[in-house]
Specification:
Elements (H helix, E strand, L loop, with lengths): L9 H7 L2 E4 L3 E5 L5 E6 L2 E4 L4 E4 L3 H18 L6 E6 L2 E5 L1 E3 L2 E8 L2 H7 L6 E11 L8 E2 L1 H7 L4 H24 L2 E13 L2 E8 L7 E5 L9 H4 L5 H15 L1
Antiparallel strand pairs: 1-2, 2-3, 3-7, 4-5, 6-7, 8-12, 9-10, 9-12, 10-11, 12-13, 12-14
The protein binds thymidine-5'-phosphate and aspartic acid.
Length: about 250
């Protein structure tokens, strides 16, 4: 029997749409609207610039649910983002942007590459958030850069960088409080920004926000509830993401 396709479901788009981009954890598809794209969350997990790779059932769904919840909360708090709507379990519709090739990392406690670079032990609480920029290049392994590099590489103007810093600090304050309500400590996170294709003078928050790109520790026990479980082979990887989702849902 032939039946009408529901425009709210991904299959509707599948028939008409083309793959625009495939990254390590997501795919971008065109939609019928020239100003939006469909972002699909894959089940793949990678670490160490793609050297370590595996697939986990439900990962795409969990990250989509967590990211959607966070983007809705940020929009309500007045942050401009690419988010339009959730389509289904693993797909969202987002505004089409040109991603700035600068990743913004905010750290509240020492962890990860900060510890490696400085020799400082994990878990030191910073007096103020530490902001880092990295050049978004898989080929070069996303190297650390600074404001001068960004200007000279033509990645963004000094005014844009000032905007990125200010937005990142605002987002950090909102996210820190949001996660704390769920008993989670926001140790650090990476975010990306893009220029709206429909209005390139506007820079909005883009990409996902999930335990793939954040470090989240249980506030009471210090247990790691993020992608470090995969990076460091700590086990119970998806169980941790599920727990994050359940806590956020209960406290949102
Ligand atoms: P790092 O300590 O390894 O530099 O990571 C800082 C934060 O950025 C951490 O929350 C994980 C996130 N991150 C990404 O989202 N993508 C990456 O490619 C890397 C290296 C880190
Ligand atoms: N996302 C990066 C990769 O896939 C690195 C990381 O998150 O550790 O390799």
């Amino acid at each position: 029997m032939c039946h009408a396709l529901d425009p709210g479901r991904a299959e509707f788009y599948e028939l008409r749409m083309t793959l625009l981009y495939e990254g390590k954890a997501k795919r971008l598809w065109s939609t019928e609207n020239p100003e939006t794209v469909r972002m699909e969350f894959k089940n793949d997990a990678t670490a160490f610039n793609g050297e370590k790779k595996a697939s986990f059932e439900n990962k795409g769904r969990l990250n989509n649910e967590i990211s959607t919840l966070i983007y809705g909360m940020l929009e309500n708090a007045g942050v401009s983002t690419h988010f339009v709507r959730k389509i289904d379990e693993t797909n969202v519709e987002v505004k089409k942007v040109t991603i700035l090739m600068v990743e913004v990392i905010v750290r509240n406690l020492s962890a990860g590459s900060y510890c490696k670079r400085t020799g400082i032990e994990e878990g030191r609480v910073f007096s103020q958030p530490v902001i880092e920029f990295s050049y978004k290049s898989d080929e070069l392994g996303d190297p650390l850069i600074n404001d001068d590099y960004i200007r000279e590489m033509g990645l963004a103007t000094p005014e844009d960088v000032a905007h990125l810093r200010k937005s990142a600090l605002t987002i950090n304050r909102i996210l820190t409080d949001f996660f704390a309500k769920s008993g989670l400590r926001l140790v650090d996170f990476k975010i990306e920004f893009g220029r709206l294709v429909s209005n390139p003078s506007v820079i909005v928050l883009a990409d996902e926000i999930s335990p793939d790109g954040c470090r989240l520790w249980d506030l009471k026990t210090g247990e790691k509830m993020d992608k470090d479980r995969f990076r460091r082979d700590l086990g119970n990887f998806m169980e941790a993401y599920q727990e994050v989702l359940e806590r956020l849902k209960a406290n949102a």
